[in-house]
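mind reviewing both lines:
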Amino acid sequence: MSVPDSAEIAAEAEASDEVLLVAFGNGDVSAARLLTARLAPKVLRYATRLLGGDRAEAEDVTQEAMLRLWKLAPDWRQGEAKVTSWLYRVTANLCTDRLRKRRWQGPGLDQIAEPEDDAVSAAEMMDDRARVEALDQALAALPERQRQAVVLRHIEGFANPEIAAIMDIGVEAVESLTARGKRALARALAGRREELGYGY
């Protein structure tokens, strides 16, 4: 087996998700590593939001979603779907299954990540944590489909047509879900704007 040169590595880093998945399906392990580094953090963040901040469960969902992607790789047909759309749909379905099995009760203290930057003051850290917890609680209170749409649009930054593909609904339905979800979030957080330092 030949060692790839720097030009091959650079070309692989620039490759689309679909090209990398096909390459992995054909036996290129380095393509899988690159695709994992690119997609797993996004899937983990999305799953964490859908699961109400439960990082441990989100990690399990991320692992399962990525395993399903690897199993699919040899049969992936380019041009039929975007890898991210497929992966986010699988992630949402896995999260839905888990939410049906339990009722979310909020993250425990041991589930809140410690800050990596020691330079952040304790007060700033508490403010940031309070904002994240307030947003996670407000998101968790939304109906499931609204929560998915709001997270995909306003946190993950997907465009409405991509969200429609992920959720398997029309673009107008996406617009309706995100609008209703945003209004519900605004109502849920309205009384806490000053406390959380958002101002008016």
In short: Residues 104-112, 117-121 have pLDDT under 50 and may be disordered.
